[in-house]
Amino acid sequence: MDSSNILGTAGLTCALKEAESTDTEFETALNHCLDNLISDESLQQPKDSKVRVMYVGLCAFFLEAAKQALNDADFLLSLQEATGVVDSKRILILATAFKEHFSEIRHRLEELGVSGPALTDSLASLTCRLTSTEVEKLGEAECVVKLKTTLPENDVQFSCSLLQLEDLVWTLRQASKIVEHHAQ
Prior knowledge:
With 184 residues, this protein is of the alpha+beta class. It has two domains: 3-111, no CATH class; 119-183. It is 54% helix and 16% strand. It contains six helices and five strands; from the N terminus they run αααααβββββα. Helix 2 packs across helix 3 and helix 4 (72-83) crosses helix 5 (89-111). The longest helix is centred in the middle third of the chain and has 23 residues, at 89-111. The two termini are 35 Å apart.
């Protein structure tokens, strides 16, 4: 995640640096953040200005991380890049809270119409070369799959064997059945 795109980096840094905020202030900001991100009740901002700054930083970071669907390692790396804080028990607390509430935060984002990059197109081709009018295989046949997204920098391209391709197709069919079942 690009740390320069995160609003409230100062608040996030303040929340993580134990020299800049107490454990009580950190816990208050985190609790307000999580309550407001996952609750249907009206928003309740902290009254204390320092806690409010930390709250804004935490909310902005959680929302951006959920939007980008960061895994645990990327979440920690982005948190460290954004704040410069590498070793803190608060980093682990945030990582645990994010992991526990990830699906709820993503759900709230989707309710607002915000989501990560979406798949727009897919292409598949066989690795081979033409010699006169015949197709000559290059070693074992491989399929090159290209998945285009709404963000070109997030496009995916990979090659796979027939067995891997069949496994992928099976997995996608299973996922399709699950989505279909939940849509009913």
